Amino acid sequence: MSNLSNLSEKARLYKKEINYLNFLNMRKFTLGGMILTGPILLVSLLFHERFNYSLEYGTCFLVFIIGIFYTRFVLKNHISWTLASFYALLVPIYAMGILMGTFDDSENRAITIMIMLCTLTMFITDNPYRVLGFLLAMACAFALCSFLSKSLSLFSSDLINLVIYSSIGIGVNMLALSDRIQNLENYAKMYEIAAKDPLTSLLNRRSGDQLMRKALSEGKTGSLIMIDIDDFKKYNDLYGHDVGDEVICKVAFELEKAFKSPSMAIRLGGDEFIVLAIGLDSRLECEGLLRNMQDSLHRSISLDSISLDICLSVGCVIFKSPGYQLEQLYKLSDRALYESKDNGKNSFTFKEIS
């Protein structure tokens, strides 16, 4: 149980990565399902005298077709819906397997549903308790349908097989789930090292550049804000690099507090930062956030009897329409930043483009 609890906690921690993995798996699952059921459906229609499952295969084929279009045109814009959508996709497929193994073939022991119990949920990465609950619910539904449709001897045989295959399915699914979540954890840790600035934990220049370009290509609007710590060299020269690092970390903390996701704060290097504030296209609101941040930074670090007053120069370009390239916005905000420095530092300069 402790292993399941650990897996459950990791599934919660890496929810974003799990949603994206499930999105990719759902795309593969629906495409593979369509390719597999298509020819079987065709054969069952051509030789309907010998094949009795045209309706079930047709239903599964239709579900996969709907799933393909749904993932392509809807789910890609709503990744957070993936898990619920995946379970919803599996329910009618399991239902067809249960029907084929019970009411449609009440004279023989079930085979198809046993295989499905072992394999289909392996495509899903989720909280292990939820996967277990789903598997047990499908097993109970099959047991009920078998009881209602078959003789006592066949029902008993199905029940024995159900216990065996369910046990195998649960074991295999938990092993696969553990392996996938461990891989996600390793990936998340490596991404943290590769994408984050080691001192501040903000996005570093390379990863920030990629994410900003991606956001702009998706039509996001808002503000691009360049920030420079005024007279930063004096902190290192007068008080040492430890204090300089503390100043940088304090500014990074205030940036993260002021500009929350989906906005992104990035450390360009040294004492330079840049923020893509998505959706923040009001000068008044943007200036208010920056003023509040500036107020928090004043006398925010105490060294013995000395309070350090951290001041910032800020250049901001506000763009209310999509279609701008990062280079265009960067040049405008950089120009605004230098105007702030020319105005005596500790000031903000705004430029607005439609």
Structure commentary:
This protein is an alpha+beta fold and 354 residues long. It folds into two domains: 2-195, no CATH class; 205-353, 2-Layer Sandwich (Alpha-Beta Plaits), CATH 3.30.70. It is built from twelve helices and seven strands. The protein has helices at 2-13, 15-46, 54-73, 82-101, 112-119, 128-149, 152-195, 205-217, 232-239, 241-258, 283-297, 326-342, and strands spanning 222-229, 264-269, 272-278, 301-303, 306-308, 312-319, 348-353. The strands form two sheets. Strands 2-3-1-6-7 form a five-stranded mixed beta sheet, with helices on both faces. The protein has a two-stranded antiparallel ribbon with strand order 4-5. A hairpin with a 2-residue loop joins β2 (264-269) and β3. α3 packs antiparallel against α4 (82-101), α4 (82-101) runs parallel beside α6 and α6 (128-149) packs antiparallel against α7 (152-195). The longest helix has 44 residues, at 152-195. The mean pLDDT is 90.
Secondary structure layout:
Layout lengths: L1 H12 L1 H32 L7 H20 L8 H20 L10 H8 L8 H22 L2 H44 L9 H13 L4 E8 L2 H8 L1 H18 L5 E6 L2 E7 L4 H15 L3 E3 L2 E3 L3 E8 L6 H17 L5 E6 L1
Helix pairs in contact: 2-3, 3-4, 4-5, 4-6, 5-7, 6-7, 9-10, 10-11
- The gross shape turns out to be elongated
Largest sheet: 5 strands, mixed
Question: Can you tell me the residue ranges where pLDDT is under 50 for at least 5 consecutive residues?
Answer: none
Note the gap between the termini: 57 Å
Percentage of residues in DSSP E strands = 5-15%
- Helix proportion: 55-70%
Mean pLDDT metric: 90
Tally of DSSP β-strands? 7
| Spatial arrangement of strands, main beta sheet | 2-3-1-6-7
| Helix and strand sequence | HHHHHHHHEHHEEHEEEHE
Would you tell me the structural class of the helices and strands? alpha+beta
Total domain units:
2
Number of helices: 12
Q: What is the C-alpha radius of gyration, as a whole number of Å?
A: 29 Å
